[in-house]
Task: inverse folding
């Protein structure tokens, strides 16, 4: 067992966790924040993407204890109360989701992409989201949503 | 994942003691190779020794060399102003590894310690005649890579930094696997004072990364794309797997060499 002290969506948590617990399992099972998904066991799908100290990571490929002392943001932590984050709003407007399974990871990756790049072209967005797979293959509208959000966020 | 114990040493001495104390300890860098391996129960180390606090990060210029701490992640190498200025081909290579989330965690030390036959960095390290410094010694790239997933690293030896000669005469082209983005074939061409002209190939060899003497001879006098077609690529030592036949890989080696040459200018 290891002593974990972590901030998730602005809230501090202290827990004893197994040394081999994955961050995604801690988020989903210990904290019951089930918006972060698990879509594969090969670190390829991106359904599990969260931000650790502001950087996007695959929470299925990190131990919970590696995030000791970190500030973690999950899909549940990006809206401002009832007001959706501009990226969430854009996914809603542009029909950027079908079944929604990949959406939390897409949104978390896209937020970092837009925050760290200016003047994103369609190609930049497609390449920037390479780590996120949509099993419903709804990529066109996902790209449109990210473009829409980028225009709003960077205005 | 099997049960294990996690430790986070504060310096290299503590990390080595932790390795010595463990029965089967494993160093943990970015975890992008190790954690998937553990999840699939392909390894069962009794102890994971996280290198994140050991002080192996940072990219610095040292005379004619660019020195990368073993824990430099791919995203840092991609965006480093020093790397972009003095060794732009390395920045491009790092920016083409996997996806953004892999690049935010995966490290150069982890990549060359693992020496995956389809990994990108081994081609750069070999073509640029880089030097690998460990907790025990400094190795040349020629002595370092010894086969598929094999290196000269001994047990309880930790890579601390990798030193590359600065050059603009360098270029990398890869044909990435569309699913994983690992190299199906990657070709790194470089001309340096220390190593001369080298062509290193990853993704294709049955023994991992290797230099191609035929291509090196063809390019020795000038970077002439037309010279590539005449080179014979023997496919008997190349990998054949579900992704590509040896014959196809031989073809890709020529095509990637041409692409790399065009980018050198
Ligand atoms: C989806 C996906 C796509 C990828 N695509 C590519 C790609 O296109 N090209 C590519 O090159 N790679 C690719 N990778 C691999 C990636 O680059 C890994 O980051 C890298 O191979 C391992 O680095 P790491 O820091 O994650 O090491 P870890 O997984 O933490 O460790 C790997 C091994 O190296 C050992 N080790 C780590 N650091 C040291 C050290 N300093 N000294 C001694 N031993 C050490 C560990 O004990 C372990 O055995 C991909 C990975 C994934 C998950
Ligand atoms: S669950 Fe697929 S990458 Fe994390
Ligand atoms: S919306 Fe169904 S997986 Fe992307």
Result:
């Amino acid at each position: 067992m290891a002593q974990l002290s972590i901030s998730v969506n602005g809230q501090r948590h202290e827990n004893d966790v197994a040394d081999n617990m994955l961050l995604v399992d801690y988020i989903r099972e210990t904290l019951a924040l089930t918006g972060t998904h698990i879509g594969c066991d090969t670190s390829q799908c991106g359904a599990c993407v969260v931000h650790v100290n502001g950087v996007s990571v695959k929470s299925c490929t990190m131990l919970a204890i590696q995030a000791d002392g970190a500030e973690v943001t999950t899909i549940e932590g990006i809206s401002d109360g009832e007001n959706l984050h501009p990226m969430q709003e854009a996914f809603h407007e542009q029909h950027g989701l079908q079944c929604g399974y990949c959406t939390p990871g897409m949104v978390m990756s896209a937020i970092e992409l837009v925050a760290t790049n200016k003047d994103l072209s369609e190609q930049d967005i497609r390449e920037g989201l390479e780590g996120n797979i949509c099993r419903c293959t709804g990529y066109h509208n996902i790209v449109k949503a990210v473009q829409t959000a980028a225009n709003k966020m960077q205005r | 994942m099997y049960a294990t114990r996690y430790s986070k040493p504060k310096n290299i001495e503590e990390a080595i003691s932790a390795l010595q104390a463990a029965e089967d300890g494993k160093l943990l860098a970015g975890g992008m190779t190790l954690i998937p391996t553990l999840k699939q129960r392909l390894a069962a180390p009794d102890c994971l020794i996280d290198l994140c606090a050991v002080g192996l990060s940072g990219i610095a210029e040292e005379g004619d060399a660019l020195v990368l701490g073993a824990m430099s992640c791919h995203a840092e190498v991609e965006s480093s102003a020093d790397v972009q200025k003095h060794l732009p081909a390395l920045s491009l290579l790092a920016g083409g590894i996997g996806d953004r989330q892999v690049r935010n965690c995966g490290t150069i030390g982890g990549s060359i310690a693992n020496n995956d036959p389809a990994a990108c960095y081994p081609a750069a390290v070999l073509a640029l005649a880089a030097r690998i410094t460990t907790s025990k010694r400094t190795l040349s790239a020629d002595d370092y890579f010894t086969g598929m997933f094999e290196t000269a690293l001994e047990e309880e030896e930790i890579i601390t930094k990798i030193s590359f000669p600065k050059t603009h005469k360098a270029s990398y082209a890869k044909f990435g696997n569309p699913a994983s983005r690992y190299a199906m074939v990657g070709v790194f061409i470089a001309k340096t004072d220390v190593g001369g002209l080298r062509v290193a190939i990853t993704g294709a060899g049955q023994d991992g990364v290797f230099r191609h003497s035929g291509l090196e001879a063809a390019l020795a006098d000038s970077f002439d794309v037309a010279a590539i077609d005449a080179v014979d690529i023997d496919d008997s030592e190349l990998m054949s797997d579900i992704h590509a036949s040896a014959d196809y890989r031989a073809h890709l080696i020529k095509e990637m060499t041409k692409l790399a040459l065009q980018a050198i200018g």
User: Anything to note?
Assistant: Chain B touches chain A at residues 1-6, 28, 31-32, 35-36, 38-40, 48, 50, 52, 98-102, 104-105, 179-181 (CB under 8 Å). The domain at 170-264 of chain B is CATH 3.30.390.50 (Enolase-like; domain 1).
